């Protein structure tokens, strides 16, 4: 455990920073805890920071101490609408690496304009009906293809990279597109915690050799249509703003942006 005191000449805030655990720092002012900082290590080895502080001085002191203690690069995530928090991180030297938009996606086919017929030769296997072995193979191949191009770090944050190529999938969360006896595309849909009537589309991916043939659109049409028949009016989806194809797909079916999150980095 280590401590550092900060008493700026013209600043009324005298803040003591203490590293109370390997991944946690406290900011104390006049015997009150006025801020906490944390680190978390993602499966891909990246270190993410978070700071919750009562005022800017506490944030700055926590950031200064944590950055001095930790190796770079360092990352953090902020709500795109929280301009004060984004400014705090930028003041500490962080810059924006990527923005991920949250979309609200209608399920009614009369709104989306999505038909029910998949491309010729393609069959959609409903959520929960996919065979585990071929699904695992497809997910592994797609990860390898993405990693070889833009990198898996550019995928939605809800779909984290895994160390050492490890892969696991729950067939109850996936619809797949099959061509012959081969799976060529997948869509992951989950229930939002504490909101049992809400669904989140976490990932749509198609093998590189089968892209631009309407497979992703057919998967989306199938899943949204199924949700609509169950009385669910909308689903949410997260899309990296640099993924032009995904942005076009969702905005083309009437999805609207409702929020965004920023990933910032200090190198």
UniProtKB/TrEMBL annotation:
| CDD domains in the record | NAT_SF
**InterPro entries, sorted:** Acyl_CoA_acyltransferase, GNAT_dom
Q: Where are the transmembrane segments?
A: none
GO terms (molecular function) for this protein are: acyltransferase activity, transferring groups other than amino-acyl groups
Q: Where is the N-acetyltransferase domain?
A: 136-267
* Entry protein name: Ribosomal-protein-alanine N-acetyltransferase
> What are the top taxonomic ranks of the organism?
Bacteria, Bacillati, Actinomycetota, Actinomycetes, Streptosporangiales
């Amino acid at each position: 455990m280590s401590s550092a005191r900060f008493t700026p000449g013209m600043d009324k805030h005298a803040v003591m920073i203490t590293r109370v655990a390997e991944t946690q720092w406290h900011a104390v002012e006049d015997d009150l805890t006025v801020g906490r900082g944390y680190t978390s290590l993602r499966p891909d080895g990246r270190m993410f920071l978070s700071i919750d502080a009562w005022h800017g001085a506490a944030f700055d002191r926590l950031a200064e101490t944590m950055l001095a203690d930790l190796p770079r690069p360092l990352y953090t995530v902020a709500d795109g609408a929280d301009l004060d928090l984004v400014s705090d991180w930028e003041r500490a030297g962080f810059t924006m690496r990527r923005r991920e938009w949250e979309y609200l996606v209608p399920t009614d086919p009369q709104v989306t304009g999505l038909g029910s017929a998949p491309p010729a030769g393609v069959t959609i296997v409903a959520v929960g009906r996919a065979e585990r072995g071929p699904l695992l193979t497809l997910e592994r191949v797609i990860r390898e293809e993405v990693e070889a191009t833009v990198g898996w770090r550019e995928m939605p944050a809800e779909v984290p990279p895994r160390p050492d190529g490890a892969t696991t999938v729950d067939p109850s969360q996936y619809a797949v597109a099959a061509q012959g006896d081969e799976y060529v595309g997948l869509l992951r849909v989950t229930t939002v915690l504490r909101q049992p009537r809400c669904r989140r589309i976490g990932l749509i991916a198609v093998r590189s050799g089968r892209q631009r043939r309407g497979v992703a659109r057919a998967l989306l049409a199938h899943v949204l249509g199924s949700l609509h028949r169950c009385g669910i009016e909308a689903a949410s989806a997260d899309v990296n703003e640099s993924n032009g194809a995904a942005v076009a797909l969702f905005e083309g079916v009437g999805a609207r942006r409702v929020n965004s999150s920023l990933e910032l980095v200090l190198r």
